[in-house]
Design a protein that fits this description.
Layout: H1 2-8, H2 28-42, E1 47-52, H3 59-68, E2 77-82, H4 94-104, H5 112-119, H6 121-124, H7 136-142, H8 148-165, E3 168-173, H9 180-191, E4 198-204, H10 215-225, E5 230-233, H11 239-247, H12 252-256, H13 262-275, H14 279-291, E6 295-298, E7 301-304, H15 308-314, H16 319-327, H17 332-344, E8 347-349, H18 350-353, H19 361-373, E9 378-385, E10 391-397, H20 400-408, H21 412-429, H22 432-437, H23 439-448, H24 452-468, H25 472-486, H26 491-511, H27 516-530, H28 534-549, H29 553-566, H30 573-591, H31 595-609, H32 614-630, H33 634-651, H34 660-677, H35 681-697, H36 701-717, H37 721-735, H38 749-767, H39 770-786, H40 792-809, H41 813-827, H42 833-849, H43 853-867, H44 873-889, H45 893-912, H46 918-925
Parallel strand pairs: 1-4, 1-5, 2-3, 3-4
Antiparallel strand pairs: 6-7, 8-10, 9-10
Helix pairs in contact: 2-3, 5-8, 8-9, 8-35, 9-10, 11-13, 13-14, 14-16, 17-19, 17-20, 21-23, 23-24, 24-25, 25-26, 26-27, 26-28, 26-34, 27-28, 28-29, 28-30, 29-30, 30-31, 30-32, 31-32, 32-33, 32-34, 33-34, 34-35, 34-36, 35-36, 36-37, 36-38, 37-38, 38-39, 38-40, 39-40, 40-41, 40-42, 41-42, 42-43, ...
């Protein structure tokens, strides 16, 4: 029976042997589809194929057969990874890491580990046991300051690098249990356009019986629509295929030349009818009949040894009943061993499982080896060596349904005992590093055992792993599960733990502007206030102020004032200084420039720097960088933010009081904005692009769109108005119109839309589409007047500039005069010298239009005065260009020529920051 069981039951082993005899039936078209995908991959056209079907339909066997047909392909590399069913997908990147580990053990590419370390150090750092000890120090330096975007880039570039040299087949199974981070890797690999001999094969069940929702199904559907993948749908075998299988003939042509005896044909029809064409049910049925000596293999195929009526009575009606009948044939010791193993999962190790079965490791292995030799339920896998030196034989159930049948037949009390025994044995055997890798599974074991404190300890480990891997959605899912477990703790233990996980939840929601952030921060503030936790209450109030400002800038001020009042009761002076700094910085960022708040922020930052905690200083540096940015100290802003982020990144994961998500958002936004303001245009665009990709791939659509908006402003300063308008339209298509209730819409979507209208109008004015510009700018003003939100005060300056330019294009001097006075009044309330110079330049252009050349020259004098001693390249070339026209018109030709030269030099310096090509040429031409 071995050759038949191998077709559908055996999960892949490292080196599958060629099959001898038997047949592979009913999957000819699926096999041909995979063959075509492989051919295209070998030509350098990367391929992705999803193989989907119900449990037992033969997905794994199809992939094995496909690989067997490619044994003669020289230097083919294969990496195989599987998802596991724990908390909806286990640890981030689990199947990817398993596939990389599989590749690192291969004999075909001895240099794979070197490529991994050199090209993907972030991924290598997740597999420390396989990295030589002398490389660990180098790895730590190589990954400093990394982010999620880098993690995705590294894995793509690593696999592409390997796949340029030789064909690479990456197989990821059971993606119905996949984590979001692994699906992001698949999406990234599918959408990249570099040539690579890469074939990615992914299997999943089309429906999740628990929820009916599958992220992988949505991904495969989207990629299929965009023609970036193939789908191979395995359906039940038809009667002809089952008949060929029973006859032992592989192809329809062979079957046509073969005349079976009627008894064989009748048996084949009966097996097909009873199994419904499910290969697993079919094979299990046939195997059961063989053991009962009710069928025989003959030259005419499988024939009954008794009447079909007796065969019908012997076969259970369902696969579950059939598997239960098989289980009941096990001896008591065998049953105890397998039931204990089923609590571990699909794969298990004697070192960890024997104690749960109340056996010695030797006895347990003897029983399992006997079952494996008989090909009953399990097969052997390689020996596992643990960090502490323990060794154990590993095994795997021949199919997930076999494991499920053994597990589901046990009572909850036995489940609890088994899982506690397993978890405690794991704790004793696993090293600290291994515990981090298995943290989700350990938490699962302790939860079923009702040991919630220890389950939460391992969920904390899992959260640290997810944070290090920048897997934000997995972090959110694990944290939400932890909050549910917290409610099961005794009341006297609950408060501190609930505060811990609630603060993390509020942070996660805040990172993506999820509307639930406000409620989470409010709950955290109330809970910490009731229990006298002042430091946490202050952090909650600051978070609540920021979340409130997304919809109501004025309403946020109450929470900022409350946080500042409470700061005097905080536990040390450095914490007090941090709170004061944050309160004043966010007051300005949310509500508008305030000179006194800025002065207090400067004082608080000096006090913060004098404290003993360098990480608290680093956290404050990032926020202080915003003050530098708004006071035209652009280089100081960039250095402050960059330095603070690098320090914080190295250590923040162990500090609950640091909001790393907020630090990442501020760094991604403000650091390239500072580069823009000092005229490093190409560098700014590059950093915005990296940030946009990072936020997009992590599902942070708010962060993504924020950077897209500022990138559009960058294109305005590059005079790329067509590119700016195209980007605005792309953003508009993503977020829709205000008030739409689309899936995934954040609390900030409507406020993003008003800023989008401003930028779109700016571009349309310059491109001459004045009707559209007027419509968009007036709507933006209406929305800004209706309900001010965070940072609206800044975008109002851009709106006033756009309306001034529109009035000039419409030759409406009176309207332009009114609008530019509003702009000057608004920028006069800030300390931002670039904007002040741009406003005076606009005033000069209005006066030129009115032919008041004396006032135009006077306006230029003001523009030059406000930039004196400051680095303001975005304004300089504009001011000098307008000055040249104004002085020439006023009769000061020499001064006009001097300003023209200064403008040309300033513009050339900016142009040189752009790469040679259309963008630079377009900028110089305007």
């Amino acid at each position: 029976m071995k050759e038949f069981l191998d077709y559908f039951l055996n999960p892949r082993t490292p080196d599958p042997a060629p099959e001898e005899g038997g047949s592979f039936v009913g999957r000819e078209s699926a096999l041909a589809e995979l063959g075509e995908a492989f051919l295209q991959a070998t030509l350098g056209h990367r391929q992705l194929a999803f193989v989907l079907g119900e449990p037992g339909i033969g997905k794994t066997r199809l992939l094995e057969r496909f690989l067997e047909t490619r044994r003669d392909t020289p230097e083919i590399l294969v990496g195989w990874g599987r998802c596991v069913e724990v908390y909806g997908g286990s640890e981030p990147y689990y199947p990817i890491l398993e596939a990389l580990s599989d590749l690192s053990r291969g004999r075909s590419d001895e240099g794979f580990m070197d490529s991994l370390v050199q090209n993907a150090p972030l991924w290598a750092s997740q597999m420390p046991a396989r990295i030589p000890a002398e490389r660990h120090g180098w790895l730590k330096q190589a990954i400093a300051g990394a982010d999620r975007g880098r993690m995705l880039r590294e894995i793509c570039e690593l696999l592409e690098s390997v796949a340029t040299r030789q064909p690479l087949v990456l197989i990821l199974e059971d993606l119905h249990w996949a984590d979001h981070a692994s699906l992001d890797v698949i999406a990234a690999l599918a959408q990249r356009r570099y040539r690579a001999k890469l074939l990615l094969l992914a299997t999943y069940r089309p429906e999740d019986p628990a929820t009916g929702r599958l992220p992988v199904k949505a991904l495969s559907h989207e990629l299929l629509i965009r023609k970036m993948c193939r789908e191979v749908c395995l359906t039940p075998l038809d009667e002809a295929a089952v008949g060929r299988f029973m006859l032992g003939t592989e192809s329809p042509a062979d079957a046509a030349d073969f005349t079976p005896v009627p008894a064989a044909t009748d048996l084949a029809h009966f097996i097909w009818e009873r199994s419904g064409g499910n290969p697993l049910f079919m094979i299990a049925t046939l195997d059961d009949l063989l053991e009962r000596r009710m069928v025989t293999r003959s030259e005419q195929g499988w024939i009954p040894d008794t009447s079909l009526a007796r065969v019908a009575l012997a076969i259970p009606r369902t696969l579950g009943q059939l598997l239960e009948a098989r289980i009941q044939q096990l001896g008591p010791s065998q049953l105890r061993a397998l039931e204990a193993a089923s609590a571990t999962g699909l794969a298990f190790c004697s070192t960890l499982t024997a104690a749960a079965a109340d056996m010695t490791q030797e006895t347990f292995e003897d029983l399992c080896d006997e079952l494996a030799r008989r090909e009953s339920f399990i097969f052997r896998e390689p020996v596992r060596v643990f960090q502490g030196g323990a060794r154990g034989q590993c095994y795997r159930f021949r199919h997930q349904l076999l494991r499920d049948a053994l597990y589901d037949r046990q009572e909850p009390a036995r489940h609890a005992r088994l899982h506690r025994s397993l978890a405690e044995r794991w704790e004793a055997v696993l090293g600290r590093e291994e515990q981090f890798r298995q943290a989700v599974e350990l938490a699962w074991h302790f939860e079923i055992a009702s040991d919630f404190p220890r389950a939460l300890d391992y969920l904390r480990m899992a959260l640290r792993t997810a944070t290090r891997r920048f897997a934000h959605r997995e972090t959110a899912a694990v944290n939400e599960h932890a909050l549910k477990l917290v409610q099961l703790l005794p009341s006297e233990e609950r408060v501190g733990v609930e505060v811990e996980f609630l603060e993390r939840q509020a942070t996660i929601y805040g990172a993506t502007r999820d509307i639930r952030a406000r409620e989470a921060h409010q709950r955290l503030a109330e809970l910490s206030a009731r229990n006298g936790l002042i430091d946490i209450q202050v952090r909650a109030l600051l978070g609540l102020a920021i979340a409130t400002s997304w919809l109501d800038a004025d309403g946020s001020l109450t929470h900022l004032r409350k946080a500042l009042e409470l700061s005097s009761r905080q536990s040390d002076r450095q914490l007090q200084a941090r709170t004061a700094l944050s309160s004043h910085v966010w007051r300005i960022w949310i509500h508008g420039w305030d000179a006194e708040a800025a002065r207090q922020a400067e004082l608080a930052f000096e006090q913060l720097r004098g404290g003993s905690d360098p990480l608290a200083t680093a956290s404050g540096q990032i926020e202080f960088g915003l003050i530098c940015l708004l006071t035209s100290r652009y280089r100081q802003a960039h250095d402050c933010i960059d330095s603070g982020y690098r320090t914080l990144f190295e250590h923040a994961e162990v500090r609950q009081d640091f909001n790393m998500a907020r630090a990442i958002w501020l760094t991604r936004l403000a650091a390239p904005w500072a580069l823009l303001c000092v005229g490093e245009l190409d560098h700014a665009l590059e950093q915005f692009d990296i940030g946009i990709m990072t936020f997009s791939q992590s599902g942070n659509h708010y962060g993504q769109r924020t950077l897209q908006l500022v990138r559009a402003w960058t294109l305005f300063n590059c005079s790329d108005f067509s590119g700016m308008l195209a980007q605005c339209r792309a953003i508009a298509a993503e977020i829709g119109a205000p008030g739409e209730s689309e899936a995934g819409r954040t609390a900030a979507a409507d406020t993003e839309f008003r800023r989008l209208l401003v930028l779109q109008g700016l571009a349309e004015v310059e491109l001459g589409d004045l009707t559209a510009a007027s419509e968009h700018l007036l709507e933006a003003r209406r929305q800004l007047d209706h309900q001010p939100v965070m940072f609206d005060w800044y975008w109002r300056m851009a709106l006033d500039l756009a309306l001034t330019n529109l009035a000039l294009k419409l030759t409406d001097a009176e309207r332009a005069q009114r609008q530019v006075e509003m702009l000057l009044e608004r920028v006069g309330r800030t300390a931002e010298r670039t904007w002040q110079a741009i406003a005076w330049d606009a005033r000069a252009r209005v006066e030129l239009h009115r032919r008041d050349f004396t006032m135009a020259v006077e306006s230029i004098r003001h523009a030059l005065a406000v930039t004196k001693g400051f680095e303001t390249p975005l304004a300089d070339w504009r001011v000098h260009a307008t000055a040249a026209v104004a002085h020439e018109a006023a009769g000061f030709s020499a001064e006009g020529r001097q300003h023209a030269q200064l403008s040309a030099k300033a513009k050339m310096r900016l142009a040189q920051s752009l790469p040679p090509g259309p963008l630079r040429e377009n900028f110089l031409a305007r």
